[in-house]
Amino acid sequence: MRTIERVVARGVVKTxxxxxxxxxxxxxxxxxxxxxxxxxNGSGKSTLLGILGTVIRPTSGSLDYEPLGDDVGTARGxxxxxxxxxLAYPDLxxxxxxxxxxxxxxxxxxxxxxxxxxxxxxxxxxLRPLRTxxxxxxxxxxxxxxxVHQPSLVLLDEPTTGLDRAGVxxxxxxxxxxxxxxxxxxxxxxxxEVFRERAAARLVLERGxxxxxxx
Length: 215
Ligand SMILES: Nc1ncnc2c1ncn2[C@@H]1O[C@H](COP(=O)(O)OP(=O)(O)OP(=O)(O)O)[C@@H](O)[C@H]1O
What we know:
Elements: E1 6-16, E2 19-30, E3 33-39, H1 45-52, E4 60-66, H2 72-76, E5 79-82, H3 94-104, H4 109-119, H5 135-146, E6 153-157, H6 165-181, E7 184-188, E8 201-206, E9 209-214
Helix pairs in contact: 3-4, 3-5
């Protein structure tokens, strides 16, 4: 699989009717480091993550997934996404969800499950229908699913949601391992202090604009 080394957003605008969610965002996301996106409710964080993840089309502006280029279809195969709506099937078990995602990426489902089970410490809860799992358990399965194909761009929207202290510690270990592996990891969080010390770059949004960009 070809990998993304850098994502460059230039002049990205996204409007929903009369609402301007993003008003000309310039940003560079680099591989091998954690980029933290911060901002108040409604400042455009999830919209920006959605655009980086190719699930939302910008109204104007451009995205370049270096060295793959601007074709979102090519980039999509190497993106891992953890979102509010974990995009998983509630009637399937966690294991089936992970195996399905592995199959989607052309991986051996059994092998992918064994690896995910060990890495994310997925206990017997992962064998029950997802809808019967707690929020924290679902979040762990969603993370396992998002990372099953070793994506080079990892997008995590509010990844601490529903996690207890041990869960947050486990999540941070996964974030560190992904950065170490060389992935570009982007986190949107209302708890930025949890990530700040390991974030090599920060983007602070205010009403659709980047007001602080530090690395
Ligand atoms: N599908 C949509 N249709 C209409 N307006 C939208 C849509 N998605 C987002 N918006 C608007 O765009 C703006 C930015 O929303 P976005 O969800 O990106 O903000 P956010 O910073 O992630 O917010 P939060 O911290 O509350 O999750 C908001 O004013 C929101 O109401």
